[in-house]
Amino acid sequence: MITHRPAAARGHANHGWLDSFHSFSFADYHDPAQMGFRALRVVNEDRVAGGGGFPTHAHSDMEIVTYIVDGALEHKDSTGTGAIILPGDAQRMSAGTGIRHSEFNASTTAPVHLLQIWLLPNVRGIAPGYEQATLPSVPEGDSRLDLIGGPDGGAVTIRSDATLHRAIVGAGGTLEVPISRGHAWVQAVKGNATLGDLALAPGDGAAVTGETALHLASEDGAELLVFDLS
């Protein structure tokens, strides 16, 4: 079964420096029917103006993934980590027993476009930590599935009952994505694609239950995130 979550149905908040769309309930947007899907709790699509950002704030017991679509984001946290996150990077911050961090647009002029993702941890009370790696580059027109991370590793380790992949579908191409945990969430990032018979535009999501594989296709090329969820 596939349930479509159209981009236009998401929650929305515009704070001037931040234009944010919420696939699930977040901050002032609350929909009891949209409290997350399995271990996936938050998917926010954020556009942060040049010079803008999130001042230092705290998290605990959450696996937080920042996925850059365009631009660059500067990360600093209380473990002493400082990093610039770019398109093509895999990144994970484990909040664990408690972490404080800030995220600011690395440019004072150009916006940064990103997805902020929260996953419920499969173990609570771990030491906070940070991990970042660069995913392989994909030649234009190619289709490729890359493991961003999961509890058994990947480019980074995500301590959740979830495995996250980046799916690149080249123009006119197709991609088969195996699903082993029984459920999946597909988030369209760039370009138009199809998930089986369902058309997906950027910002759309889809909850999938009872499938062992997903068939993705795109006429003009697309980039998607696929969460394999218990």
Automatic annotation (TrEMBL):
Residue ranges occupied by any Quercetin 2,3-dioxygenase C-terminal cupin domain in the UniProt entry: 150-229
Keyword terms of this UniProt record: Iron, Metal-binding
Cross-referenced Gene3D superfamilies: Jelly Rolls
InterPro entries cross-referenced by the UniProt entry: Pirin (IPR012093), Pirin_N_dom (IPR003829), Quercetinase_C (IPR041602), RmlC-like_jellyroll (IPR014710), RmlC_Cupin_sf (IPR011051)
UniProt keyword annotation of Transit peptide present: no
Free-text remark on how the cofactor is bound: Binds 1 Fe cation per subunit.
PANTHER family: QUERCETIN 2,3-DIOXYGENASE
Entry's family note: Belongs to the pirin family.
Descriptive protein name: Pirin family protein
Organism of origin: Glacieibacterium frigidum
